[in-house]
Amino acid sequence: MDALMLDGNAVAGLLQEAFGTEMTTATGICDACGAGQQVGAVRVFRSAGVVLRCHECGSVLAKIVVRRAQTCVDLRGLRSLAPPAD
Amino acid sequence: MEGAALLGRLTWQLADVVHLVPETAGVKTLALDVPEWPGHRAGQHVDIRLTAEDGYQAERSYSIASAPNGARVELTVERLDDGEVSPYLTDELHPGDQLELRGPVGGYFVWEAAVGGPVLLVGGGSGVVPLMAMIRERAAVGSDVDMRLLLSSRTWDDVIYRDELERLAGSGLTVTHTLTRSRPEGWSGYARRVDAEMLTEVGPAAGDRPHVYVCGPTPFVEAVATALVSLGHEAAHIKTERFGPTGG
């Protein structure tokens, strides 16, 4: 357990900016272990960018970097990312 | 769908600082007037952005403490000594100043009356802030759902919202404190970190399938969530929100 770890709630604004809609209630499936989780519950590590990791197996789900007002989103660790059904 | 996408768009706006209220040592509530505020749900956040004279910007996310109430938004901020943002908010800000913010954001760690109960709220230190928004929302809409707050603080003087919690308790809301560092003389309440035995005594039982919200520093949230799962609470019913030393 890392004391610097946060969770998906902490990047709600960043995600909403990138996706144009509320994303913490979206469900992501980890490509490595198949676990499904709401984005608000994933592990988040912040450094130069933001890294989202699976709360079950710790694999990287997504990486987000903001540079010169451009938001780059890498979702290769997600098998799927489904918006909340409403 | 087009409308929903537009609603989801986030823009920075200027909020007016109306007043500042000291809560405990190092913790202040900022009352803000946000002219274009679209309303919020209990448990949501705002992002605050500070810009230095040289253009350097720092952004942090803060939980909203108030129940939805027009253009008024209250944040409760804990000063972190080595933080980039919180010392400015707690020490430098004055009524009449302006602050750049966007929000509300988030939707995962949210409770509203329609969610129903029973509800168990477990807070560590300033982790009580989004939980307080839920307690205030319950009171504001006159809900009588079974809601229980277990709040861990270092000392009695560190208990945020202490008097208001005392006033609101009753008619379905219970408030239980545990003090981890020191206790006032004659203290008969809990005097240790939150554990499975304490969670069992505070309840509700896992079989009652309560909605559980846990907010605090990362180690606190991990320990409480693990204890809840060991008591048979379904992971899907436990919503967590962690803040860490990077949150300053």
Quick recap:
The complex is a heterodimer of chains A (86) and B (248). Chain A has 86 residues and is mainly beta.
What does this structure look like?
The complex is a heterodimer of chains A (86) and B (248). In chain A, the strands form 2 sheets. Chain A has a 5-stranded antiparallel beta sheet, with no helix packed on it. Chain A is built from 1 helix and 8 strands. With 86 residues, chain A is mainly beta. Chain A has one helix spanning 12-19; strands at residues 6-7, 27-30, 36-38, 43-46, 50-53, 60-67, 70-74, 78-82. The longest helix of chain A has 8 residues, at 12-19. Helices cover 9% and strands 41% of the residues of chain A. Chain A has one domain. By secondary structure, chain B is of the alpha/beta class. Chain B has 2 domains: 2-105, Elongation Factor Tu (Ef-tu), domain 3, CATH 2.40.30.10; 113-242, Rossmann fold (3-Layer(aba) Sandwich), CATH 3.40.50. In chain B, the strands form 2 sheets. Chain B has a 6-stranded antiparallel beta sheet with strand order 4-3-6-1-2-5. A 5-stranded parallel beta sheet of chain B has the order 9-8-7-10-11, with helices on both faces. In chain B, strand 7, helix 3 (128-140) and strand 8 (147-153) form a beta-alpha-beta unit. Chain B is globular. Chain B starts with a helix and ends in a 5-residue tail after the last strand. The model of chain B is unreliable at 1-6 (pLDDT under 50). The chains are: A mainly beta (86), B alpha/beta (248). Chains A and B meet through strand 1 and helix 1 of A and helix 1, strand 3, strand 6, helix 6 and strand 11 of B.
